[in-house]
Fold these 2 entries.
Entry 1:
Amino acid sequence: MDRKVAIVGYKQTKYLEQNENPRERMVMNLVQSLLQDMKITRDDIGTFILSCSDFQDGRTISECFMIPWVGAYMKDVSKVDSDSANAVLYAMMRILSGNYETALVVSWAMGGSEFRSPRVMDFELDPIYERQAKLVNEITAAALQAQAYMAKSKLTEEQLAALAVKNLRNGARNPLALRKKADATAKDILSSRPLASPLRELHAYTPADGACAVLLASEEKARELTKNPVWIKGVGFCQDTYYLGERDLVKMDSLQKAAKTAYKMAGITDPAKKIGVSELHTTFVSQEPIFAEALGLIPKNAGPNAVSKGALEIEGKTPINPSGGPQAANPLMVSGLIRIAEACTQLRGEAGEHQVKKTPRLALAHGQIGMAAQHNVVFVLGN
Amino acid sequence: MAEHKIVNSFVGLQFIYNYRVGEYLDKYLDGLQSKKILGITCPECERVLVPPRSMCGKCNAKTKKWVTLKPVGTLKNFTISHVEIEQGEIKDREKPVIIGQIKLEGADSLLTAKIEGVSPKEVKTGLKVKAVFKDTTEGTLQDLDHFEPVK
Amino acid sequence: MRNVAIISVGYNGRFVAKRPDVNIPELIQPAVANAIKKTKLKYSDIGVVVEGNMPTFEGINYPHLWFSDHIGAAGKPVLRISTGGTTGMSVFQGGYYCVASGMFDVAMVIGWEKHDEGDAQVGLIGIVLPEAFSMFQFGPDMGGGGTGMMGGLSSTGGASFQALSYLHRAKGTPDHIDKMAAQARSNAAKNPYAHLQHPNCTAADIAKTPMVSYPLRYGHTCPASCGACVMLLVAEEKVKKFADTDRVAWVKAVATASSDATTGNLVDGQINDPAEQAICEKIAAPKAYKMAGIQNPKKEIQMCEVYDGFAHQELMWPEKLHLVDNSCKAIDEGRLAIDGDMPVNPSGGVVSTNAIGASAMVRVAEASLQIMGMAEGGHQVPRRVKNALAHGWGGLFQFVTITILGDEPVKR
């Protein structure tokens, strides 16, 4: 690969229970404001990569109704049907090929107002076994994963609650977040509705309406478009086997492999030292220490220690989800793109109240789909 | 901000999908009907997989050789589920259900199943459990009703 | 830019209406095995898997998660792409970019559909109904497929507008569509993998079938098939190592363009009918020819595989692709036949075999087999195919994808 790809611009909507606009207008406003910020028009975009789901939008080939609203009328478009971090990956590969100089990635979901996220997640189950057995769903899968981790690392329920508190407080510092509570306490978490042990409602992601757009460019074009491009230093993605009973839910092979590839590409040997901030697509907070270990951001079984020392807080040594993460707002498949946009915000020092203390040189963004994160994407970004 | 009207439209469409279970699950369901748990072996890594399927993804080999597993095993992991998801709505269960991952004797994968006969407060990993079938079996996954502690 | 070659094509077997004997992963798996068998590749050599289908047709979100183990994807990077009718070719082009980007040396692409488990017409109505909602919000669109389909006419209803408009523009008659359909069914009989095979089918046979929506008859429409198509794409440097044949098909160009769902757009001051297809004629096709270094497509391209969900499209698309001036005239002169000077769909086309998520990929697969000289059962074009074109359309007549293959790589 002799080319480099940068993220030159990004824009998020506010995440709401119900956006004041229908999907089309929400997306159009978002893309228009990004193009205005960048002082370009839609004719400057080489290729559009959309990330949306027919199950989320409730119609077949949903993107066909969105072409004009993303500005792609009479343009080059494709759609990734997976977490939107995969769409950034595809956009990057298209630029790397030399066929395009710029790519716009757009993802949206009306997860707060139009569809029930757990229903969409249920459609991910295979129809012949898990859907019939009616035991595994997004909650029980994450709960089994959390239980396995707690048994292994001795993470306590109080520590798990502390993680949720952290995210609610972080959310309060992020103007775009939906669920936020500056004065959240462990008691709030531990008294919220129990879902499946050890998980409770306030450990879970918050369904939301929202959209995100990210503009990518080749090296040459990036320098034309912005003074502070964020470079894609490394990327890796990997999918695990399907059945929960055949996976090591704590070790997370697929995430480890994805991270290994991304670190190798970025030339990183010591991620714990080098990565200044991480934005992870965690459907439940319990996944934070699990992912952090699999990503090598903290040592094995160090989750409990990291939590008690506050290492994962905004001011901590290994900040995770300073935006509040999916616990603050999660429009399902948009989540990966949000993580990337948030990582860029941190690298550029533009995160305002939720900016990590020392502006990082390298940031990690993560996307996932599937029960207990079967499929993972890892981005290492830098400036 | 003006709040706009919502238009509701009832769409009287029923999506009916007829999923074929395939040869392997078909045989597994037959096994359940005769109150047996069947696993299948990968000829290369020799893992015994339950539920069975045609391919081992580790070796990319066609699975062969059926084995009838003893209906006993060890509880390796569990969660106490307080809710169920119905058409995307998270509804409270009447009483909590223990959902466990069980390592059957002779199997290499963990089987997800309900655990009964032990209270949520007392359930522990390492518990020896045995399969309990429905009295009248119908060749569905529900034939294997739950697991309970070996007395 | 790295050159990319197709070294192998695998089908699961013949495409058929019903496969009660297998589940979805079991349907796809043999196609994977067949593709790999024809190469020197091992599963472990595959760097990335790109997969796609129409998710609502089988009612499974992210189905690739489920059949991870069946397609050699466990522990591997997997990308899922889905774009309606063009899905198969969008997946193929995704695989192409995985290799062309330098990220991977070997990509496996998979397109599939198992129509007997779901209800494709119900699925398709799912794209028509929101159009009605969209009308409430934004006002009615300016004619074309969307409105027609919304009127309860289903996809055939939308296509009938296109067919009429096409016939008007080409000065053709419905008899030409009969002829085209008859050729497709006869060609399909020479393709052991095709679904609707009708040896020596005549225009008179087609004309006897019932009218669905004028001018389209039952005999002009496609079946709903079950099947999978798999292809292996390899970077130029690795072709010798992995290909088990001297004749591989090189990807010379890929292009895609999209219009909007209502087949017109007032924002940009353009209103177009579904038979206009400026996205193909004016955007995607010129772009593809430029990338492939082709100046005179009529001379330099020896055959094409177009996405003809309805038989009139097999006439329309070669015109939009600048391969034929007037298809109605060309079919009268026999020029579109397997032994003609611009063979169109020697495989029998989509009108004879339609497993939607696979269909656009099958176009590329068939074009590559023609270049490799490996089309089985008598549908191999007799003269040497140096360049071949594959095409797909999707959405509400609004997506177009084009791939041009050649028997040697482009010097870049």
Entry 2:
Amino acid sequence: MEHIVIIGNGIAGITAARHIRKLSDKKITIVSAESKYFFSRTALMYVYMGHMKFEHTQPYENHFWKKNKIDLLEGLVTEVDTQKKFIKIDGVPDLKYDKLIIATGSKPNKFGWPGQDLEGVQGLYSKQDLELLEENAPNNKVCKRAVIVGGGLIGIELAEMLRTRNIPVTFLVRETSFWNGVLPNGESEMINEHIREHHIDLRLGASLKEIIPDENGKVKSVVIKETGETIDCNLVGLTAGVTPNIDFLKDSGIELGRGVKVNRLLETNSKDVFAIGDCAEQHQAIGNRRLIEAVWYTGRMMGETLAQTICGNPTEYKPGHWFNSAKFLDIEYQTYGWVFSKRRKNDSETHFHWRHPKEKICITAAFDKDSKTFLGINTFGIRMRHEIFDRWLNENRSIDFVMEHLVDANFDPEFYKRFETEIVSKYNSDFGKSIKLKKSNLKRIFQIA
Amino acid sequence: MSTLDKSMALTGEPPKSLSTNQKLAALVGLSGLGILLLAIFNVTFPNKVLWLSISLSAITIGTIWFSWDAYTNKLPGIKNDGVWFKSISSRGLWGWIAGIALTGFYIVLYFYPEYLGLVSDGDNKGVISLFDPLSKLLNGNPASQWFVYGTLYTVAILAFGIKFLWKYRHNRYERLRTISVMFFQTAFAFIIPELMARLNGH
């Protein structure tokens, strides 16, 4: 029986294992150094915040794995021998494989800051990071102030987490506005305001120069590069993005870039070795997507795709139109298609922006200046239907069409205030149009003939 | 080595202590419950109208004050911080005490209403007699155990409804459904049946 070994039990590795099991009777072993059982990484923050216990983040009962004949092995993989087809695991006998799937995810970026390895300095990615945070910042007596370095999705999560324990937070963001390498300016500005109304000391255009230890080798303070200001703190959260977690593959002969290089079938240059999830790097970009996508759902898609290939149905990884969702403190964010930031967008991409006069609700729709083709939409505080935008992007609809049918896309809970009228009227006045909003139509939404 | 006392628990020490306002609110609310408890043990209150009013108002005000303090300085948004750290909401000792007390109350209510002071052929005693004035006002008859229960239930729906409206002020769906529950409990489930009983009575 063919033996499939999967390194890493995150969403990518686990999805691959589950789908291989659905399709075959192959022997499956999952190796993880992080935790015995799969848990939902995106829910880790809620354990610290007291919304969940850790066991609530485990989507499957512990007996699920045995029942489905998926072997779980705890240990750190130190070496992969692609010639003799085995892996070395710390403290466990070597493991032979017929096919190897690398799904080791990411690790927090460290950019060589002085003091980055001191006690009290940490990232936020793994279960161990969460346990460490509980030691470093259990309350505001042990941790009198925290400094977070790096303004992205993990940084703002960490800030939110620490604020639930009333720990003062200083948030260093290198950019001139929060996440404006990704978000258009209006949205980024709204998030700045929201961060500040949560009493987070947001410092824009501020980067880390060094971290200074006390006499015990614990973090004492940080120095800001731009101003030279020293900020006393007991915790430094390094959240300036993530890098593929692939150091153990350096001498394996597997082709590496920043991640493990794979083709569209998710195969590496070594026979019978595959890579999926955060640690996989495409040779060529798929559409506008990045070569490495550290996104939860792409990990799941890759796992599902690879299971097909391994079970005899070679299938290319086709992630479809870009979409994503996240949360900035109390504001939900969704994106469908591409809406680029000022820095990344090209000249033909035009933006339409609407923001609620009082509440933290806004949208930005992107379209092509000449063809008027709809390119994508960002929404904050309004939920949209994924299927509808996916359909409109497939059909290359125009921005006028999207505005006219905007009601169809809304997916807010019942009785929520609707803003389509205001949005379309602003669109009409911005671009000199006279679009009339169509009424919601369930037949249209669900394509019932 | 750090001299820090490192707890091995995955959940540390989040802020779960009460503010001064919440302590005072708890005092007010529990004193309202305390009056009812004394009545259960047949302490006779001289002025039933006054003491029942004090008791129900204290429970209501205590609950509303407590929740106001919990949410007044928070922005609209999901408010579940710390629920798994608190004994009452994570199956801890306080959760068990509340569960056992409520179960006990229901057993007495359904099977042994005489312990609450129900007297079938004569004047009520105990906590049920405390509710006699209100019952007479609404339906013209002395209180029963169901009237006591209905009143307390309605008070809980109204006081905690206000708490819920604050907690979920970001969510129009939750606000509407809470207002609906508060209205239908007070009007259709409590006041209207009582008034109808009076109309039907004689």
